[in-house]
Design a protein that fits this description.
- The complex is a heterodimer.
- Chain A has 23 helices and 31 strands.
- Chain A is α+β, with helices and mostly antiparallel strands.
- Chain A has three domains: 190 residues, Aldehyde oxidase/xanthine dehydrogenase, a/b hammerhead (Aldehyde Oxidoreductase, domain 3, Alpha-Beta Complex); 235 residues, Aldehyde oxidase/xanthine dehydrogenase, molybdopterin binding domain (Aldehyde Oxidoreductase, domain 4, 2-Layer Sandwich), CATH 3.30.365.10; 168 residues, Aldehyde Oxidoreductase, domain 4 (2-Layer Sandwich), CATH 3.30.365.10.
- A seven-stranded mixed β-sheet of chain A has the order 3-4-1-13-10-11-12, sandwiched between helices. A six-stranded mixed β-sheet of chain A has the order 8-16-15-14-9-31.
- The longest helix of chain A is centred in the C-terminal third of the chain and has 28 residues.
- Chain A is globular.
- The termini of chain A are far apart.
- Chain B has two domains: 106 residues, Ubiquitin-like (UB roll); 67 residues, DNA polymerase, domain 1 (Orthogonal Bundle), CATH 1.10.150.120.
- In chain B, strands 2-1-5-3-4 form a five-stranded mixed β-sheet, sandwiched between helices.
- In chain B, helix 4 packs across helix 7.
- The longest helix of chain B has 14 residues.
- The two termini of chain B are 23 Å apart.
- Classes of the chains: A alpha+beta, B alpha+beta.
- At the A-B interface, helix 1, helix 4 and helix 20 of A face helix 2, helix 4, helix 5, helix 6 and helix 7 of B.
- Bound molecules: FE2/S2 (inorganic) cluster (2 copies).
- The site of one FE2/S2 (inorganic) cluster has 13 residues of chain B, from loops.
């Protein structure tokens, strides 16, 4: 289909601000009379605050006051896991206990040093399996897991834990627990029976937890004026986050102005207000002190409260029929939920196998166990991306055992349009995995390179890897608003956050497309909520492109319909007699009979009522959108839309091929070549898609080769609070060039055919990389991510440390 | 091949910091580096700095970092703080054409230096510097928080080596982390800048 805007590059309006430094992040703002808050954080991993003596600090010159958990939770802290604004019951090192405000940060820090906090030390635990064992310590006072029944204690016998640690299958009666449902799809027994003449793999695996480390620390500044709270903060999802943040702060939605023109990186933990309650500290503090309060967050603090990936300690059994079909997969995962509760990563991992490989029978069981380590939560492909690097070498082992090519076994097991997946058997909206596999293989010359597989060059050996990624990539049920004044310019009100994907701009172009507007005649209205913006879904789960092209397109089509009504009323005929082109609404039969957009907008404003949002708003508009619409009502011509919920699963898929050269003497490898292909429906913004593919590639390299938490087992202190120790990939860890491409076939459940891509782009690279490492090492399966240099060296030298069964996922070794 | 500024590679810098023990207590490093109060002992505080071609007189505490002075005394908030501990490069500015971590050097050390920040790159008529234009053309930035540092590192690189290979550009920018992982697009931007520069 020929589009004006979809599929074409453009300069998103914020890019100039980014290259000139003019765009402002929360910490770049200042306000007269601003004071500075600093945090007193827990020095120990699990404790109860018994007493706070701040008298000396409060007597110091330049100190304005303190804010404690008792003040922010006058009715008591919520009895649940999850980050708190401030807490008297820290469950990880670095958790904020109180804040102190002073004339400057040095004074604040000096004063904090004068505060005496009396802690009661409580037992702590870093390894979920230590906690799972009967008699083992619990991360929380009420237990080691949290679910619908509140805090509970999940325990296995010592024998069960020892057997699991040794890499054995958990017993059939191994208790499952936590917020993650177990599930069974199909007939597992029959699936493995069918694989008896094919190939069956069984083994344990670990994946590491590691921090998000967004580049912008989650600093925030707040002040109150005329009863309104002005909060400069950071978020992945502008209105979705503000909507919930109002509740956390305790301010009416109408009275919160959330200002967030740009966010310095969001990879899951800035999508929802509950993941970033620290922004409530300056909000509440400024209310208490009646002064603007700036709270700068340090890198260490960002590490602690910024979120981290759940680690897995798991066992997996996968069966393949002789024809290569994955007939059964049985998986048990103990997930490390960290100190503040986590997500359902392990469930998503199993769900991913079911969808990505169309496995005939899948059983998932798991236990989600808390530890006194960093806060866990959604991180780029939570679950799908942990399992991707584990499963890829298993696919390769099956292919080798069955005498198939590694490409063919993936094609045999790939998802296509009409397929279903997951425990509910949810239909996919569309799927073109075979096309993606073939495109990646062609672009990379996968077949041609097979002659180099495991080729030796001195101490170096070549490894080839192919990997796949998947994430559910689209939602619905949100709202859209477009406005037009008498100048005829289209104002697209976007509640989509600016986290670096440019989806706020890309999705807005669906509105321009619907109205056939030149981009130069459009303005995106966003950046602060007093611009009256519609609700969006939280921008996690790669959903923004699918979700918000639906709303933008819908709002614009509402405007088109109203234009035709107005033209028909004024110029005669029926609305169906009219069409739009070149910023005019005109009769189809005689294009000279019509009105310019400026004229029709002027006319709409004269007519008022439903044309300007003063009447007949769509039913089911979200409360947040209703507030925005009520403030816009009567100011200009309005198109407004509530997107009905859709039920099918819009998938985002990726395929990556890579070639590495691994040095058997040093254990290091270099990525020589990489091709990543996106299968995400129609491409909306090629440069933006390319950025998601290469950005995901860097994250995939981190996941499979570098990043992991490190904790001191004696005191529970984090040892990887910075970039350097966390081993966030640098330019030199990534290939000098990453080639990208896309399938570009439309999805029928999106008006412009688009689906999302941000998360699978990491999964396929991590999968391709572990497959390539395994390939270079004669098919050795580490069952781990990351596979670090020392693990490779230990494997080559024949020691067993490369595969310490289920080594704790916060540090390897025993 | 040599990194563009062998005197101040990221690794050397970090080695130096570790040797001095400064990394150990990083929270206190932030405050020690950014303290505003006058310590014991007389150090001239009102100093002249040459920033983006202008002489600016500014009150600088003895232990104040260059990034702090630029951001909070001179309002040049284009220079970002990602880690404030010499790990990420978000604070990169040029001092006498050399990319320098603004968070990890003391302002008093640069009284005689020529300091350039991202705000100083555009021509008076608003024309973008070739590196900025190259980054726009290639859509280098994602979230943009590392972008000013990447821009300044690239400007420093191209002054030393106007026609780098892609590999040289990769080495030259290696002290700048991008958590969004936009390295490939930034390298496209540098190559484009060399073309149009
Ligand atoms: S802020 Fe200076 S290197 Fe990170
Ligand atoms: S663009 Fe986000 S950190 Fe580089």
């Amino acid at each position: 289909m020929a589009y004006m805007h979809i599929g074409k590059d453009f300069v998103p309006p914020d890019v100039i601000g980014k290259v000139t430094g003019r765009i402002r992040y929360a910490e770049d703002y200042t306000r007269e009379g601003m004071v500075y808050a600093r945090l007193l954080t827990s020095p120990i991993p699990h404790a109860r605050v018994l007493d706070i003596d701040a008298s000396e600090a409060l007597a110091m010159d330049g100190v304005y006051g303190i804010l404690t958990a008792d003040e922010v939770y006058p009715d008591g802290e919520p009895q649940s896991t999850g980050l708190k604004i401030l807490t008297n019951h820290p469950t990880l090192v670095g958790e904020p206990i109180l804040a102190l405000a002073a004339v400057d940060e040095k004074t604040a820090e000096t004063a904090i040093a004068a505060i005496n906090v009396t802690f009661e030390r409580l037992p702590f635990v870093l390894d979920p399996l230590d906690s799972l064992q009967e008699g083992g310590p619990n991360a929380f006072v009420g237990g080691n897991t949290f679910g619908q029944q509140g805090f509970t204690e999940a325990k296995w016998t010592a024998d069960q834990v020892a057997s699991f640690r040794a890499g054995n299958a958990p017993s059939e009666d191994a208790p499952t627990t936590g917020p993650i449902p177990t599930f069974v799809i199909g007939d597992l027994e029959a699936g493995f029976a069918a694989a008896e003449d094919g190939y069956i793999y069984e083994g344990s695996f670990t994946t590491a937890g590691y921090p998000h480390h967004s580049m912008e620390p989650r600093s925030a500044m707040a002040y109150w004026e005329d009863g309104k709270l002005y909060l400069h903060g950071t978020s992945q999802s502008l209105t979705a986050l503000a909507n919930d943040m109002a509740g956390i702060i305790g301010v009416a939605k109408e009275d919160l102005v959330f200002i967030n023109a740009a966010t310095g990186g969001g990879f899951g933990q800035r999508a929802r207000a509950a993941s970033i309650p620290s922004m409530a500290i300056p909000a509440k503090f400024s209310q208490k002190l009646n002064r603007p309060v700036m709270m700068r967050i340090t890198r260490e603090e960002e590490f602690t409260i910024g979120g981290a990936r759940q680690g897995f300690q798991g066992w997996i059994k996968v069966g393949f029929r002789p024809d290569g079909v994955m007939s059964a997969c049985d998986m048990f995962v103990v997930s490390d939920n960290g100190g503040k509760g986590g997500g359902a990563d392990a469930f998503s991992a199993a769900d991913c196998i079911s969808i990505l490989y169309q496995t005939e029978a899948v059983r998932f069981r798991g236990a989600s166990i808390a530890t006194n380590t960093a806060h866990r939560g959604a991180q780029r492909g939570p679950g799908q991306n942990q399992i991707a690097p584990i499963i890829a070498p298993i696919m390769d082992a099956a292919a080798d055992a069955l005498g198939m090519s590694r490409l063919d076994i993936r094609v045999v097991n790939s998802a296509q349009t009409g397929d279903v997946g997951g425990p509910q058997g949810t239909p996919l909206t569309s799927a073109y995995m075979p096309e993606a596999l073939r495109q990646a293989a062609d672009d990379f010359d996968w077949e041609g390179r097979q002659s180099r597989r495991r080729e030796r060059n001195g101490s170096k050996v070549t490894g080839l890897g192919i990997g796949q990624g998947y994430h559910n990539a689209g939602r619905s049920g949100q709202d859209g608003i477009v406005m037009m004044g008498a100048d005829g310019r289209l104002k697209i009100h976007s509640g989509v956050g600016n986290l670096g994907t440019y989806s706020y701009a890309g999705t807005s172009r669906a509105a321009a497309e619907a109205l056939k507007m030149p981009w130069e005649s459009c303005d995106i209205i966003t950046g602060r909520t007093d611009n009256h913006l519609p609700i969006t879904s939280p921008q996690d789960g790669s959903n923004s492109i699918f979700t918000n092209t639906r709303t933008c397109y819908g709002a614009a089509m509402d405007m088109v319909a109203k234009m035709k009504e107005i033209a028909a009323a004024d110029l005669g005929g029926e609305p169906a007699d009219y069409d739009i082109s070149e910023e005019r609404v005109h009769q189809i039969a005689d294009a000279s009979v019509g009105m310019t957009y400026a004229e029709v907008a002027q006319r709409a404003m004269e007519l008022g009522g439903r044309y300007t949002g003063e009447a007949e708003l769509p039913e089911d508009l979200h409360e947040w959108t209703q507030i925005a619409a009520s403030r816009l009502a009567g100011t200009a011509f309005m198109g407004i839309y509530h997107d009905p919920a859709h039920s099918n699963n819009p998938p985002g898929f990726t395929v990556t091929c890579t070639e590495i050269e691994l040095d058997l003497e040093t254990g290091k490898f270099e990525i020589l070549d990489m091709v990543s292909i996106g299968e995400c429906g129609t491409v909306v913004h090629p440069q933006g898609l390319k950025n998601q593919l290469v950005g995901g590639a860097v994250w995939g390299i981190g996941l499979s080769a570098l990043e992991q938490h490190l904790y001191d087992p004696q005191n529970g202190l984090p040892a990887s609070t910075g970039y350097w120790q966390s081993k966030v990939p640098t330019y030199l860890d990534t290939p000098v060039r990453i080639d990208t491409g896309w399938v570009d076939l439309p999805d029928p459940e999106n008006p412009v055919g688009a689906r999302g891509i941000g998360e699978p782009s990491q999964g396929s690279v991590s999968a391709a990389l572990t497959a390539a490492i395994s390939d270079a090492l004669d098919g050795h399966i580490f069952g781990a991510a990351p596979i670090t240099t020392d693990m490779i060296i230990n494997h080559i030298s024949g020691t067993r440390e490369d595969a310490v069964a289920l080594a704790q996922n916060n540090y390897r070794g025993v | 091949m040599q990194p563009v500024n062998p005197q101040l590679t990221r690794r050397r810098f970090i080695k130096g910091v570790i040797a001095s023990g400064a990394v150990a207590g990083t929270t206190s490093l932030w405050y020690a580096a950014n303290g505003q109060s006058r310590p014991a002992g007389a150090v001239e505080r009102m100093i002249r700095l040459n920033v983006n071609g202008q002489d600016r007189t500014v009150d600088v505490a003895p232990q104040e970092t260059l990034a702090y002075t630029l951001r909070y005394k001179l309002g040049l908030t284009g220079t970002k703080l990602g880690c404030n501990r010499g790990e990420c490069g978000a604070c990169t500015v040029l001092v006498d054409d050399i990319p320098t971590y603004g968070c990890s050097v003391l302002t008093h050390s640069f009284k005689d230096g020529r300091i350039e920040t991202v705000e100083g790159l555009e021509a008076p008529d608003g024309t973008l510097h070739p590196v900025q234009q190259g980054f726009v053309d290639a859509l280098g930035p994602q979230c943009g928080y590392c972008t000013p540092g990447q821009v300044m590192a690239a400007v420093g690189l191209l002054r030393a080596n106007p026609n780098p290979t892609r590999e040289e550009a990769r080495q030259g920018l290696a002290g700048n982390i991008c958590r969004c992982g936009s390295y490939d697009s930034y390298l496209d931007g540098v190559m484009r800048a060399a073309e149009i520069g």
